From TrEMBL, chains A, B, C, D:
Protein known as: PduO protein
Organism for this UniProt entry: Microscilla marina ATCC 23134
Domain of life of the native organism: Bacteria
Gene3D superfamilies in the record: Haem-degrading domain (3.30.450.150)
Pfam families associated with the record: HbpS-like
Length: 137, 137, 137, 137
């Protein structure tokens, strides 16, 4: 089970990476039930990225894969075309990553929004790595 | 902070430009928090453009850029494909423009809908110019 | 048919009455189709009253009566108990008044929110009187 | 303007008070535009309180008063009966408190949910006091 303490460390790690990239991010963490566990909007971050970060985290947990992978399948003509209409709205571009425990089970997800999708993904990944490091230690 | 008086002058300016272009527009102004500040639907304007004008204004403030710029990134295969599913529905074609104060800070946005996207954008721009002129004076 | 010009005069009259009462109001006008025609949020008015003013105007037009009259019927044990769950949310306390033309036909409604329900109703009434005066003239 | 750093200190203070009261809380902070700034759900806290805490914070900012004060006016027969149907859902029992700056202006709100309304309010108040102490210092 993902704890609030772990989520807060992940957000701190994500914020640090956001600062390295000179970006301002919305960062959301959901638990195994895809329910919001922790959230932070950095000063000056896009207001519209608030909802996107939460939707990315939910989307990543809903399907246990990176949001960008869903987006590849959701293009016109693709097998999951317009899947974004489900679940009250999905976001299917990069920035959402499942969170796994030491046994590889998905216990939640992180969603990041506020810059390019490359930066969003990199900041989400930085958050995930914080937990991975803690689980190994 | 954007005042109602400023918003009303912007709507008046936008309406004047809409008349010049022989169009009938819905015009919405939101504040820095993306909350509606003022709205006007010109007689005979499309009913469906009511919601579009408000969503354009919100979208422009959500991401501090013209709605058309978001649309370029949101095409199939693009990095923000289907971003419109966030925030209760975005509109990503032209007609929404952020409103800035004399220091260049975004203090709200205007959204216009009722004609071609070129006309919508031109009318929104006319509204923004009213405020710019006032801020300079 | 209610025109934008008439709606704007009604809003101006309502704002004047709001100032007399030393209140800050959200003022919404809907047309015969219960669709928003014009809106103004006075500087410093409650943010939550934005949606309430629009819902009051819609509610008054939905049933062609003052919102407070609906509220009397919507109390626990009353015939319309919890009618507020319909139509995406109604507001059934005072502040919404139907707008009638010279023939007495309902052509829209005004909704006001931002103070006590007595003040809200008084400001809505001031808006309606502006139109009545114009129709007589 | 309320900063993320201030919001995080408020959440830390609220969590400390929640522990003192032996409760598990959802804690939400919104900014002046009623948009989510930071959120934390303590381990084991009620899942349904997630949304309630956010709605309490929004409600307190929407009307610049404690949520419990709105609830007193929203009882059957009261002037604001069923106001909760507005704004996508309000929560009108205690646990939401406006956040003010040193000049007394409302710059956001805190919402807490997870225990009795007395405890919810006490934990929200603990969060507000953290900011008050910082503003004085």
């Amino acid at each position: 089970m993902l704890t609030l303490s772990q989520a807060e460390k992940m957000i701190a790690g994500a914020k640090a990476q956001a600062a390295v990239l000179d970006t301002k991010m919305n960062i959301a963490i959901v638990d195994a039930g895809a329910n919001l566990l922790a959230f932070a909007r950095m000063d000056g971050a896009w207001l519209g990225s608030l909802d996107i970060s939460i939707k990315k985290a939910k989307t990543a947990r809903f399907f246990d894969m990176n949001t960008g992978s869903i987006g590849e399948l959701a293009q016109p003509g693709g097998p999951l075309y317009n899947i974004e209409h489900s679940n009250g709205g999905l976001i299917s571009f990069p920035g959402g990553i499942p969170i796994k425990n030491a046994e590889g089970e998905v216990i939640g997800a992180i969603g990041v929004s506020g810059s390019t999708v490359e930066n969003d993904h990199a900041v989400a990944e930085a958050g995930v790595k914080i937990l991975d490091a803690e689980l190994v230690a």
